[in-house]
Amino acid sequence: MWLDTLVRTLGLDGCDSIPFLIQQAKKLKVSRPSYLATLVVVLSLLLMSLGIMRNFLFRIYTIGFPLYETIQIIENKDFARSKQWLSYWIIFTIVLMIDEYFYWILYYVPYYHFLRLAFLVALFHPELKGAELLYDVVVHKIYIKILNTMYFQD
Predict the structure, then answer these.
(1) What averages of pLDDT result for each successive group of 10 residues across the chain (154 residues)?
(2) Can you list the pairs that 55-59 forms with residues at least 24 positions away whose Cβ atoms lie under 8 Å?
(3) Are 14 and 126 contacting, i.e. CB atoms less than 8 angstroms apart?
(4) CA 90, 88, 143: angle at the middle one, nearest 5?
(5) CB neighbours of 113 closer than 8 A, spacing ≥ 6?
(6) pLDDT for 89-131, tens place per residue?
(7) Which residues contact 149 (CB under 8 A, 6 or more apart)?
(8) Which residue from 72, 116, 125, 140 lies 20 to 30 Å from 18 (Cα-Cα)?
């Protein structure tokens, strides 16, 4: 079915195991909870493309879900996933700082809001684990270089 293909393409298969979505899917008589998640994502993207609630939806996706996952790690003591989420928060903060200071330029980049959202979602997507990869490849090396400059100067 085309909806199953869309769910897989958006990477929302994991939503079938979220208790809140399971409960809502039963109430609404929807066969898969991930269909509800797909509807929310598609409607959100449509609203964002129209400029409606753009910042609110951006914050929900880039802060709300990662915050929930971080709390889950702490509450369940699932520290195996902690590097991914700590890396996300570090990179998210860097992106926020860049965005804050250079928004007056970035605003004119076509589709900047979607590109920023896609980048941040790629950072926390469970299959991509972009935050961990970007931390290992870029941030860690910059951090070591800064440490060496600060503490090991001649």
Answers:
(1) 81 80 88 87 86 87 90 90 93 94 91 90 88 95 90 70
(2) 58/113, 58/116, 58/117
(3) yes
(4) 40
(5) 48, 54, 58
(6) 999 999 999 999 998 999 899 988 889 999 999 998 888 889 9
(7) none
(8) 116
Q: Give me the helices (H) in 11-64, please.
A: 19-28, 33-49, 54-59
What residues have CB less than 8 Å from 87, skipping those under 6 apart?
A: 123, 131, 132, 134, 135, 139
Write out the H or E segment, with its range, that includes residue 69: helix 65-76
Tracing tokens 């709300």 back to the chain, one arrives at 64
Q: Which of 94, 77, 89 is nearest to 142 (CA)?
A: 94
Residue with tokens 């369940």: 76
Specify the residue for token string 């270089």.
145
DSSP assignment letter at 77: T
Measured CA to CA, the distance from residue 69 to residue 73 in angstroms comes to: 6
The answer to whether 61 and 125 have CB atoms below 8 angstroms apart is no
Angle at 120 between CA 118 and CA 121, to 5 degrees: 65
